[in-house]
Design goal:
This protein is mainly α. Among the domains are: about 160 residues, no CATH class; about 220 residues, Tetratricopeptide repeat domain (Serine Threonine Protein Phosphatase 5, Tetratricopeptide repeat), CATH 1.25.40; about 100 residues, no CATH class. Helix content is about 75%, strand content about 0%. The protein is built from 37 helices and no strands. Helix 20 runs parallel beside helix 23. It is found in: Cytoplasm, Cytoskeleton, Spindle; Nucleus. This is Anaphase-promoting complex subunit 5.
């Protein structure tokens, strides 16, 4: 989002002295008086006194920063278990409040003078008094000085109004105290939230602090921000006290974006820039035009988030036109960064121009973001991997020099995704783990970052554990992502991850209905992934005509290269299985070779290895096991290194079938030795399929293993395989045909 704050002059009104602020000042006075009393001095120094002071400091800081509380709520905080407040301090505090309510104006003015004497003036004053005093430059000192400054500006009638307002403020507590005279129990109701009040009164400083803290959390750590409903409630309350606060409307705009509420977001954005222009009538025309430029730019961002591409392009075009007319290079570079997301042609030239211009203007953030976008674009357009990783290192240098926490995390996520795209799953999971172990609070000057890159890393590890058959770890990681990233668009990552997990597990267990449901849910966040998974499901269900039709339909569209290669592999599998055992389609090798060329051109090593396995399988079906073994050398090592348990088991199973078929013309003794070794290798294949719960595949492996043991006369091993098959059939009675003949 583009920050609308443009250093416009602000109109600062005199703050109202509310009963809550008066009560906090009284509490501070009584605390410093209590610290010099005999009761405090006899407290155990090593245990109670440090805890007492620490808790009170934290409590006062919350009371100063938070909106006004009722006296009942304030007293509830004082007697709660969260803070250690001495009974004597509470007693004296209650007594002073009662005196202010009952003794009138004279006592009230004397009390203000006592508060005034808390401020540290000079060293002579310190020597003459025995009371502790407040440093005027401290947080509490600033609060007291501001309170006294606003009080001194009041007329006598306004002072009287303050006193009368305090009496109305004190009345609910007085009634509760009459019901239960015990000062520690009169207000000890259910513990409340620090922000919970239907009558919030916000000073401008409190509102600005709240807005800044919530905006930072929405940008860096959304999980710790207030939920959308509660945040909108507080925004409405602070706008009642500060109707001209433009930043509050911008925070409302960000909050509406979290829940995809278009009307509310547009309404808040318009109010934000209206308030910015009405803040002070002395704004020059150039400053107002600058606000209009950024308003159009933010409107374009809003439409892009809502997937209104035409409207976003129109608003962005307006922002670019105004920026060019005013020669505003900063706004123009922001607009060019978003233009990259909206156009489909000449992206490389646009990114190159944006990076070079940002470098000239010293816009380091936009430059680093442009480098990462360029790396992402180069990855999917057959860029050289070596040059890509060298380029993203330049972004890392800029990020570390300027402590850009979000871009540091994004760089890790980009490296992880690039390694995954190239088929190096182990390297991909390593970079995801490095991001999760990165101490961002130390790296970025105490500001933690917990945004989309972190969610992507969690989901990447969840997908990795799914392929490794660690389903309990996958569930834990998905639950973690749900907890920290509940809102769109970041939530789309774990929605896709969760449904992929359900689909893969259901497919292995032959639960077709659950797999189909999961594949259909994927279409919400990734339509092409959903189509590919549904086609894969039809292949496993042996609905070859429908699967062939869907795969052909997918290939008619211009897809991302990895999707296209996967669709071509699926089409080859469908053609092979639908025509076997009568024949092997003559065009299947040409189709697989075409997909192999694409995979090699784009450096997609894992998909290239999968294609090698399918080519070897076709050679085996054609009765050429020797050529199949040679082809296996091109992909087997990579699959065993970076594949999941399912793919590794399939690869080793294919290798065993090729070895056994190739041993048919060897002498009987040598042939029996090869078959016996191959049968033992199937133990690893069996354990791999069991790990991912592919029990129908386990049955096929047991059947093949029993046949091989029977071939060499190993009757005891054969019988054991038969027994395991029977027990497995009882535990998992899945009705499925054998995959041994054509499937990998």
């Amino acid at each position: 989002m583009i920050n609308p704050k443009e250093n416009l002059p602000k109109k600062v009104d005199r703050e109202i002295i509310t009963p809550h602020r008066l009560t906090v000042a009284i509490l501070l006075k009584e605390f410093f008086k209590f610290r010099t009393s005999d009761i405090y001095l006899v407290l155990p120094l090593e245990k109670i006194r440090p805890r007492h002071v620490q808790d009170f400091c934290i409590l006062i800081l919350k009371l100063i920063q938070n909106p006004d509380l009722t006296l009942l709520e304030l007293r509830n905080l004082l007697v709660s278990d969260k803070y250690t407040v001495h009974k004597h301090l509470l007693k004296e505090f209650d007594k002073v409040l009662d005196n202010v309510n009952s003794k009138g104006m004279r006592y009230f003015l004397d009390l203000i003078d006592e508060v005034r004497r808390l401020i540290l003036r000079d060293m002579d004053t310190v020597r003459k008094t025995s009371h502790l005093q407040i440093n005027k430059s401290s947080v509490v000192g600033y609060y007291i000085r501001r309170f006294l400054l606003n009080f001194d500006k009041l007329t006598f009638s306004e002072v009287t109004a303050v006193l009368q307002s305090f009496k109305r403020y004190y009345e609910p507590f007085k009634r509760a105290h009459q019901v239960n005279p015990d000062p520690l129990m009169a207000c000890k109701y259910k513990e409340i939230s620090d922000w919970n009040s239907d009558k919030d009164q916000w000073s401008r400083r409190q509102a600005e602090l709240f807005i800044a803290s919530q905006a930072a959390l929405l940008s860096n750590n959304e999980g710790k921000a207030l939920n959308p409903k509660e945040l909108q409630f507080h925004i409405r309350n602070l706008l009642k006290s500060n109707p001209d606060l433009a930043e509050a409307h911008f925070l409302s705009y960000l909050n509406y974006l979290r829940v995809k509420e278009f009307c509310g977001a547009v309404h808040s954005l318009h109010h934000c820039f209206d308030r910015m222009n009405l803040t002070d009538n002395r704004n020059s025309g150039d400053e107002k035009n600058k606000a209009y430029r950024f308003a159009a730019l933010n409107l374009a961002v809003l439409h892009y988030q809502m997937e209104h591409r035409e409207e976003a392009f129109a608003a962005l075009k307006e922002a670019i036109t105004m920026a060019q007319e005013a020669n505003d290079n900063v706004c123009l570079q922001h607009a060019l960064s978003w233009l990259y997301c909206l156009i489909n042609t000449n992206k490389d030239k646009l990114l190159e121009h944006s990076i070079l211009k940002s470098l000239d203007l010293n816009l380091t953030y936009i430059m680093s973001l442009g480098i990462q976008s360029f790396v992402q674009y180069a990855g999917v357009t057959s860029g050289n991997p070596k040059q890509i990783f060298e380029t993203i290192t330049k972004s890392d240098i800029v990020n570390c020099q300027h402590s850009y926490g979000d871009l540091i995390s994004a760089s890790y996520a980009h490296k992880s995704s690039l390694w995954l795209f190239y088929g190096k799953t182990e390297m991909s999971s390593l970079w995801s783990q490095l991001l999760l172990h990165l101490n961002m609070e130390t790296a970025v000057l105490g500001k933690s970052f917990c945004g989309e890159p972190l969610c992507l890393s969690i989901c990447n590890l969840a997908n990795y554990f799914t392929l490794q058959g660690e389903y309990s770890l996958t569930n834990s990681l998905i639950s973690l992502a749900k907890e920290h990233f509940p809102n769109e668009p970041v939530s789309n990552s774990w929605i896709l991850c969760e449904n992929l997990f359900v689909f893969i597990r259901s497919l292995h267990n032959c639960h077709w209905f659950e797999a189909e449901t999961a594949a259909q849910k994927i279409s919400v966040v990734d339509p092409w992934e959903s189509k590919l998974r549904l086609t894969e499901l039809l292949l496993y269900r042996k609905d070859y005509s429908e699967a062939h039709q869907r795969a052909t339909e997918i290939l008619k569209h211009k897809l991302r290269i990895d999707y296209q290669i996967r669709a071509m592999i699926l089409l080859a599998e469908i053609q092979c299985n639908s025509s076997f055992p009568e024949s092997v389609p003559p065009g299947i090798i040409s189709l697989l070779n075409s997909s192999l060329v694409y995979a090699n051109d784009f450096h997609l090593n894992y998909l290239s290895s999968i294609v090698h396995l399918h080519l070897a399988n076709v050679q085996l079906l054609l009765g050429m096991p020797g050529q199949a073994l040679e082809l296996l050398e091109g992909g087997l090592v990579h699959i065993l290194t970076h594949g999941g348990h399912f793919d590794r088991a399939r690869a080793v199973l294919l290798y065993v079938k090729c070895v056994v078929a190739n041993a048919g013309h060897k002498p009987e003794g040598e042939r029996n030795k090869i078959i016996l070794e191959a049968a033992k290798m199937l133990d690893d294949v069996r354990s791999g399929f069991e790990k991912v719960e592919a029990f129908s595949r386990v049955k096929d492996v047991l059947y093949l293993q029993a046949r091989l043991y029977n071939e060499v006369g190993a009757n005891s091993e054969r019988n054991k395989c038969a027994l395991d098959y029977r027990l497995l059939e009882e535990d998992h009675p899945v009705q499925s045909e054998s995959y041994l003949l054509t499937f990998l």
